[in-house]
Amino acid sequence: MAFPGLLNYWLIIGLMMIGFYIVIAHGNLIKKIVGLNVFQVSVFLLYITMGKVEGGTAPILAEGITAYSNPLPHVLILTAIVVGVATTSLGLALVVRIRNAYGSIEEDELDVQDDRP
Amino acid sequence: MGMIAIAIARIHNLFAVVMLTGIFSLLGAAAYVIMDAVDVAFTEAAVGAGISTVLMLGTLALTTSEEKPSPKKNVVGALIVVTITGAVLIYGTLDMPHYGDPLAPVHQHVADRYIGQSGTEVGLPNVVTSVLASYRGYDTLGETYVIFIAAIGVLAILGRVRFPRRREEDIAEDDAQKTPDETARETGA
Amino acid sequence: MKQKIILRVISKFLIPYILLFALYVQWHGDFGPGGGFQAGVIFAAGFILYAIIFGVDTVRVVIPAVVTRLLLVFGVLLYSGVGVAGIILGGNYLDYNVLAHEPTHGQHYGILLVELGVGITVASAMITIFCTFAGRGPEDPEEEV
Amino acid sequence: MIAQHMPIIQIILPLMAAPVCLIIRHPHVVWIWAVAISLLCLPISVSLLMQVMDTGTIVYELGGWAAPWGIEYRIDTLNAFVLVIVSAIGAVVMPYARRSVEKEIPVSRIYIFYSMMLLCQTGLMGIAITGDAFNLFVFLEISSLSSYVLISFGTDRRALTAAYRYLIMGTIGATFYIIGVGFMYSATGSLNIHDLSTLIPEMAGSRTVQAALAFLTVGLGLKVALFPLHMWLPNAYTYAPSAVTVFLAATATKVAVYALIRVTYTIFGTVDFLDIVPARDLLMGMALIAMFVGSAVAIYQVNIKRMLAYSSVAQIGYMILGLSFDTVNGVAAGIIHLFNHAMMKGGLFMVLGAVMYRIGSVHLHDMAGLGKKMPLTMAAFVGGGLSLIGVPLTVGFVSKWYLIQAALEKGWWPVAALIVVSSLMAVIYVWRVVEVIYMKPAGQAAENATEAPMSLLIPTWVLIGAAVYFGIDATTTVDVAVAAAEALLGGAR
């Protein structure tokens, strides 16, 4: 059981950081929300990968199976996914309003407009 | 998935970005299946690849589908922040149990009871459902309210008829003159 | 998309099955993967598909805004109500054991009702969110403030 | 039977009341409903606090499942105290909201507004009451999502960008928090805070646990608006509707500070590696910088709402400073300031809400001469301002007194000196406003202003009066705070 060892975590961290980078480095409001999604999906992966048991199956009880993967991370992530989609939809709604109010969804252009109201 | 994530970061056409995000979610769902999280995979496929993508497309239709190349000012700062965060994360994983290790603390402490007892305590074969709705049912209640907030929040932010601030009498008058159709629109669609 | 005949026909053919599948996922969540949340999303997806092809106004005839709003409220109150029922029947909040004579039966009823609450809330929330987005024109004038 | 279920009733009462707002829909009836609910919450939380002071920690198992398998509510002195703060502010803000909401929010949206206010209050109380780390995240999101919506109700279009920015930063904070929880979970297999507090010390050397602490601190630091993670706060407070600003300023950051206390003291309290890793020193450094930068920026603001927002950044610095001392007196000082700041900042923002209601602006030059036009309102501002500075006989003095004592106790007299100096900076920004409202002749905007209506004035004076009352008779708050701090530090230190 040497492979994948800790490699799974590191790959996921790589994904997470790409998502995080998109959120903070990009000025486009939609792109930021996309980045947030990528970031969150990777965090979900981090949880799920913790719950995996070698040789286990999905945690649905059946006869003849003794090893199950851990159901708790699954439950937590189900909740987190729902929270994620709620955040996304609110964020997108705000983006639409911002576009109507400013005519732009680029962060630096918004800043310019706000400086001379 | 890494390729797609990088592509999402690089591409400026938001339409392509949204499509790639959908694919990213689907791949995530596939990864969940590999790691035995079938319920999560189901949800991710329905939400991440379905609803989120549809909403983002809707937003694109209402705004614009081209990202303007941003001035390169915050790239270095962002890279520093991301590198530090990533380094702390990797530092944290060094003492984590290896992938699939059945002796990991995660599987020892509370999970045992869920798998061992939920069949008799709750009586459902799907342990995820048992934990979701019964053992940790309160979290799920919170989650339902989160969705509720999202729905009425979107209604509040984007609801169709938005009239300027007016005196109350005017609004009362308006209400009196409004046709049923208008009222319905104002409240929902 | 009023003129795309293939889309119209195929979707009319598909939508009943989507809704049926949603109901299956809803009630079968105890045994296989699935449950209220997934069912709600799929159920909403049926309506959203309909809305994309036939227009939001058509969907709003089938399921008016008032109805989704009431269902939204009904769903969350159903969930919280099951919890309150637990208190009234002598248990703690969200304790399903007391809902029936036997604990496992109580658990079964509780989970069924709770999942139904989730399903209703999620379906009506998703329909509301989608219709609110889609019901808005691209250049709606911003409110004057 | 009711007494036994008190902890959950505290939460589900406003939680279930919120969807009912969608059925009622009539602006006035919804308001009456919201006021009734928030007034009911207050006695519940007070009785919980009294019960905890009498009989010790209350445990309530949700769904009848024992922790750590199920979720439990675990209420000790600190939780109960925070619950009282939130429900008290809610009970004062709701009656206040009616007039200012009528003016600032379209009538067709008012019912959503109150629904969101109730949910936001529920979320904050849910964070305070829960004994489960993941459940805390769920309620954190309930309060955050509803506050994004509440902020976006603001009349200025900048409210939209403020809400958006808060949404992005808040979500990053929440995601960092779940990464931290995930690491703790990976190391221990538990999500229950009480359970974690016994398991974590055993594995203090684990790098996973150390990284968890870092992520939890940064994630909650974003919610606390701890310098330099405070970027979202000034705009959010400035452009949100008045009632929302009052509510958020008085409660949201306080509850986040509470969560930070929970994490650093309850979960990681007895962990030794904190002495190796200079986490507390770092926290103290940031707190000190926050105190100075916040105050310094506040001095230059012409929008008074924004000025008070930056002043909040500085005041949050005081709270975190108290925490970083790691002594009973220091933590107690932090908790006292938590309560005191909620009252005075709430009162001050209420004054600005009243000004907004009368003259439609909170810019410094528009407020000239208001001292004569709205004497009672402006007297409240002076009261709150004195408290902000920390003049004797106000609550501000009490918290600073304990903070300085705690610093001297450790022999850190430079820190004590810095506290005094930063208070002097508060004198400057408060005086600027006082000078303009009393010494300058009324400008165009304030020409026709009259005294604020009673429904705004009474809640304002309730908070300012409380700030004076607890400044003169501080025994209650100090007793509670010291008891809470002792419980947190386990009497070991």
Question: What is the gist of this entry?
Answer:
Chain A has helices at 7-25, 29-51, 71-102, 107-115. Chain A has 117 residues and is an all-alpha fold.
SSE topology string of chain C: HHHHH
In percent, how helical is the residue content of chain C? over 70%
Name the poorly predicted regions of chain C: 140-145
Catalogue the unreliable spans of chain A.
Answer: none
Spell out the blueprint of helices and strands.
The complex is a heterotetramer of chains A (117), B (189), C (145) and D (493).
Chain A lengths: L6 H19 L3 H23 L19 H32 L4 H9 L2
Helix pairs in contact in A: 1-2, 2-3
Chain B lengths: L1 H9 L3 H21 L3 H25 L12 H19 L11 H4 L2 H11 L5 H9 L1 H22 L9 H10 L2 H8 L2
Chain D lengths: L5 H19 L2 H29 L2 E4 L10 E4 L1 H28 L5 H20 L3 H20 L5 H31 L4 H7 L7 H18 L7 H8 L2 H26 L5 H4 L2 H21 L4 H21 L3 H32 L10 H4 L1 H15 L5 H15 L3 H27 L14 H19 L2 H15 L4
Helix pairs in contact in D: 1-2, 1-4, 2-3, 2-4, 3-4, 3-10, 3-14, 3-19, 4-5, 4-10, 5-6, 5-10, 6-8, 6-9, 8-10, 9-10, 9-13, 10-13, 10-14, 12-13, 12-18, 13-14, 13-18, 14-16, 14-17, 14-19, 14-20, 16-18, 16-19, 17-18, 17-19
What are the key terms here?
heterotetramer, B: 189 residues, mainly alpha, 10 helices, 73% helix, D: 493 residues, 77% helix, 2% strand, globular
